[in-house]
Write a structure and sequence with these properties.
Strand content: 15-25%
Largest sheet: 4 strands, antiparallel
């Protein structure tokens, strides 16, 4: 939930007084024109951008006080901006979502590999498992990134324009 949340950049407010409460199992959608602050609000709620004013709460804890490792176990974020790793396959990109399960050495277990393969299959992207991510179309990349969010097994998913670049069949 948020409490008197104002969001923006460098102290300049883009959207103010955001009152939001999300209950388990619910889908909340932000609707508005381009440039209205939807992505800024999502990035702030996800902890990637500090609030201009107010607080984002998760289970009665101030989100800003949570460690990154705690946040990774709780929250998956898929934004509109993306890195384009030069030599990573679809599998490699999705495996990043398992990082909080792998321990300090980052080794994937058979359970992690199954979870990655299941997430790729769920979004119809298993055929891109061994394909260089930079060779994929924007829609194919979008499906791989959605699989990365799903494989985290998060309590909360924050998806910014998750159906961008997708064909109608995949949007459905």
């Amino acid at each position: 939930r948020t409490d008197a949340l104002s969001v923006g950049y460098n102290g300049a407010t883009v959207v103010s007084e955001i009152a939001l409460m999300v209950k388990p199992g619910r889908i909340v959608t932000l609707i508005g024109p381009n440039g209205s602050g939807k992505s800024t609000a999502l990035r702030t709620v996800a902890g990637a951008l500090p609030p201009v004013c107010g607080v984002v709460w998760y289970n009665d804890c101030n989100l800003a006080s949570l460690k990154r490792s705690e946040l990774a176990r709780t929250l998956a974020v898929m934004t509109t901006s993306r890195n384009n790793p030069e030599y990573a396959t679809g599998f490699d990109v999705v495996s990043v979502g398992r990082h909080q399960f792998t321990g300090i050495l980052g080794r994937l277990t058979p359970k992690d590999v199954r979870a990655i393969d299941n997430a790729l299959a769920l979004v119809g992207a298993h055929e891109f498992r061994d394909v260089n991510f930079s060779y994929l179309s924007d829609g194919q990349k979008q499906r791989v990134l959605l699989a990365r969010a799903l494989v985290q097994e998060p309590e909360i998913m924050i998806l910014d324009e998750p159906t961008s670049y997708l064909d109608v069949g995949y949007k459905l």
